[in-house]
Each structure stands twice: as structure tokens, then as C-alpha cells.
Amino acid sequence: MLAQLPSVLQSLQLPLRLKLWDGHAFDLGPKPQVTILVKDPQLITQLTHPSLDELGAAFVEGKLELEGAIGEVIRVIDELSVALLKDEEDDQPVRSEHDKSTDAEAISYHYDLSNAFYQLWLDSDMAYSCAYFRSATNTLEQAQQNKFEHLCRKLRLREGDYLLDVGCGWGGLARYAAREFGAKVFGITLSKEQLKLGRKRVKEEGLEGQVELQILDYRDLPQDGRFDKVVSVGMFEHVGHANLALYCQRLFGAVRAGGLVMNHGITARHTDGRPVGRGAGSFIGRYVFPHGELPHLSMISAYISEAGLEIVDVESLRLHYARTLEHWSNRLEAQLDKAGKLVPEKALRIWRLYLAGCSYAFAKGWINLHQILAVKPLADGGHELPMTREDLYR
């Protein structure tokens, strides 16, 4: 049976063992750390051209099993793909249609999976976005609180400010801004499950007079400049390239003159926004974030500027997100039995690959995370920001 394996596989030196459906096994190098159990004989020929999306899909669909620590699995599978696909061109950009119905369905697919499932591996505030590690010893809980503070300080949030939180999730940032900075917050989401739990927590903390959470599409935001500050965290990835201009225009119309807008989100490696190569981006689009599209920093910056906002600060948190995702992945892996009772097996397989794979992708520099702070200039061209960043780090 081993003779049926393509000869190219037999020449590799990877810490990988192939186990076949009939019990035969073949080591591709010394001291295997990862095992691929092939359950479908048709997959053998695909292993000569192992794109990351095809291997991921085979695992999700139960056609193969992956054994070993999930982080090591991702690393070895990528090395296998690199060795056999060499320098294949990256995926070409795929542009999706983004209307209100499509976006609502995509958000529901991802975020309405199960609040209890997310609670297994997120922090207690359920911040589902990049944390901020001031120290390598920070716990996930500490790093997410650091992130909330970092955002509020960058926004120079003050007591009584009216803050718009676009894509508020379960309301962790909204509650923090109200509780710690005395802001009044209006948060919007398209996820019914997030809204339900978010409102419950607002009530439990006695913040109903300061925090209001609603189901609302960003396209329907009020355009009367009523908000002093705007924050959007992990949301614009769902907007789509075709709607980025409109998205930025809506943020501009929502904030008052002199007000600040913070956009915190994942950005692409390539300037045209095409996904990373060997199929990793395609897997995310197919199984994790339907219709999601990542713009390059230069692309989103251009749209922010064209909308009339002036960019005053940009910070990359790429390695912070690699560490955040590593925490999430480790927390999920430690509770797979509980997770398997909350979501279907296929969903759990998707999330295991997604969390570990994205941690690897951020660490390798395939994708990035940028916080972009912009101001809506006053009529005379001025603004209310201090002349330096020193106040952020006091």
C-alpha cells in the first residue's frame, strides 16, 4: 500500500506521519510530531498538491483527521504545502456583493453560533478582537482590558462624551467606556445573540442610563454629527471593498466636527487586498467569514481620507493579534469536550483550524492589524488633539 504513495511525498523530510485508511503508516521524516489520518483514498492524489484550503476542507468534512498539538499541526501542514506548491501565486481578489440582507446573514452565520461556545475561550468580557499585551506576562483578561483602555485613551474619551461603537459585539468596550471613562455609548450590531447577552450585561452592571445597544446596519447610522467620538473594532472586515467608501462616509457623517474616529481592524498584506497564497484566505472565506474582505492599509486609509477625515495616528498590532489568537486557541483546545456539546462537530473543526491558523498567519505576517485614528477637522482646519502622543503613555 505504501508504494501507492506519490514518490514526491517520500522525498520530504518533515516531522509528519501519514496513516492510511487500511492501517498502513508512512513517516515523512524522523520523530513525527503530527499525523494525518487519511480516511478517503481519493485524498492521496490531492496530497501531491496540498493547498491549505483543500486540506482544511478535507478535515472539516471528516475526510481526514489531524493528530498532534493544533499549533504544530498548522506549522507542519504549512511546511508540507510550501514544499510541494513552492512559489505559487497568491489567490486573486474575489469581490462579493454586500447588501444589508447578505451582510446580516453573514454576521449571523459567524456570531450567532452560540454565546456559550464563545464564552469557553474568550475573556470574561467576551472581547472578540485583538488584545493589547503591555507585558509578555499579561493574561488574556488583562490584555483585553488593556485594549479597552488603549482605545479609550487614544480617543481622548472624557466624561459625558457621546461614543458610537460600530460593531459593538457583546458590549464589553461599550460598558468599559461608560464605567471607566463616564461616556454615554450607543452600540450597534447585526447579531441578535450578541445583542441579547450584551443588553443583559448592561443591565446587570446598572449601566442602562449610559449604554444603549441596538440592531442597526452601519448604512443607517444618523448623519447629523451627534457623536463626539466613534470607535469601530473588528467590523470593517465585513464591509467589503465595494462599500468601504460608503462605510467611511457614514462614520464621517456620524461624528461632530473636531470629533475622533478610531478604526481597529485586520488589513491585507497585498495592496490590492488579495488573500494570502496557497488557499488559506479561501478557506476563511468559505467556512469562517462569508463575504469577508480585507483591504490593505493604504486602501482603507485612502477611503478614510476621501471621506473628509484626517488620519493622525496609525499603529500595527500584528504580533498582539498572533498572541491573542494563540490564547483563544489554547483555551478552546483545553475544553474540546465541552465545546463539542455546544456546537456541531463540523463547526468545532472549523474553529479549531481558524483560531490556530490565524495565530500562525499573523505571526508569519500574512495579515496585519491596524488601529487608525482620524479626526473630523474643524471649520478652520484645526482640531482638539494634543500636539504629541505623550498623554497616551503617562
From TrEMBL:
Record key words, sorted: Lipid metabolism, Methyltransferase, S-adenosyl-L-methionine, Transferase
Residue ranges constituting the DUF7884 domain according to the UniProt record: 10-85
Keyword Calcium among UniProt keywords: no
One Pfam family named in its UniProt record: CMAS
PANTHER family assigned: CYCLOPROPANE-FATTY-ACYL-PHOSPHOLIPID SYNTHASE (PTHR43667:SF1)
Recorded family membership: Belongs to the CFA/CMAS family.
Protein name: C17 cyclopropane fatty acid synthase CfaB
Organism the protein comes from: Pseudomonas rubra
The organism's taxonomic lineage, starting at the top: Bacteria, Pseudomonadati, Pseudomonadota, Gammaproteobacteria, Pseudomonadales
